[in-house]
Design a protein that fits this description.
- This protein is mainly alpha-helical and 335 residues long.
- It has two domains: 211 residues, Rossmann fold, CATH 3.40.50; 93 residues, Tyrosyl-Transfer RNA Synthetase, CATH 1.10.240.
- 56% of the residues lie in helices and 7% in strands.
- It contains 14 helices and five strands.
- The two termini are 30 Å apart.
- Bound molecules: tryptophanyl-5'AMP.
- Tryptophanyl-5'AMP binds next to strand 1, helix 1 and helix 7.
- The site of tryptophanyl-5'AMP has 26 residues, from strand 1, helix 1 and helix 7.
Length: 335
Amino acid sequence: MPPAAQTRPRVLSGIQPDFSLHIGNYLGALRNWARDQDEFENYFCIVDLHALTVLPDPAKLRANVLELAALYVACGLDPARCEIFVQSHVPAHAELAWIVECLTPMGWLERMTQFKARSQAQGRERISTGVFVYPDLMAADILLYDADYVPVGEDQRQHIELTRDVAQRLNSLHGDVVKVPQPLIRDVGARVMGLDAPLEKMSKSIAIERPGHAVLLLDPPDVIRRKVARAQTDTEPAVRDPVGPGVANLLDMYAALRGLDSRAALAAFEGKPYSALKSAVTDAMVDALQPIQAKYADLRSDDAALQRLLAESAERVSAVAGATLRRVQVAMGLR
Ligand code: TYM
């Protein structure tokens, strides 16, 4: 990292290499990381240890990590200005996670929405303890790099609140040991809803069972067009304020993709038929995704170079993470 960059506030964020990325991941996270990379000192992690909570096939997990690394760069993250690394390549993540677990009352974890949803869907007897302590590993990811901000979508807010609680607890017990981070959640695109069910958050795992749920970052233009054309709207023939959830979702995606606020997006389509809105949303998605897909294909022609990039970054960030871990260990009496 160039020395000048070190005076900037630091961001850390991450994405799980569990399933294919969708437009919500792009609008809620990746796009913002890329757009703002000059403002910050940037740490972007591929959180493969988190992805183990869905027990992916090992070959698939390995493939997903490379796919995600290529997508990070294809979406505009510049490896000269951003650390791009794999969580499991830096053992300090798992080590600090244990310490964080010892500082976290179970009640805090039981209140996590994602834990509640997964334990309801699959049953507490069946889900792994990894799902339960997942937010502690995420807290470790963030605290290791003394991140000032964590740029994420709305669904991660509660996890960042927990990270702040744990950091404050550690600091109140042992002096100022870690930095207390803040979430960085944007006004538009922070909660993209399912195309087929606009009351449900767009999710990578649902998109596997119901392809019409989400536009994926690597979908070709004709697939994008078909998925958006089938997106749920409501019974009105045209866009009218107040709009229903499906139309609101299309307008929000349009606003995020074209750099408008939601009021301007609504004004642009007020009184127009849904087909006009859908076709504008499709065009905006294709305009955004085509250059990403071209760059992605190019990057995937040299996986060895991607692997080198990840290895070099892991080596650099290990020094940062190791120093924080050591500070915490000393404060806790482990060293
Ligand atoms: P993950 O992999 O589920 O999602 C990656 C990012 O995409 C955002 N996102 C969305 N944004 C808008 N609309 C949606 N429908 C939508 N779905 C997902 C997420 O908010 C996220 O920013 N726990 C994290 C990964 C993680 C992490 C971290 C993040 C692990 N350690 C440390 C930040 C810092 C997760 O499961 O993200």
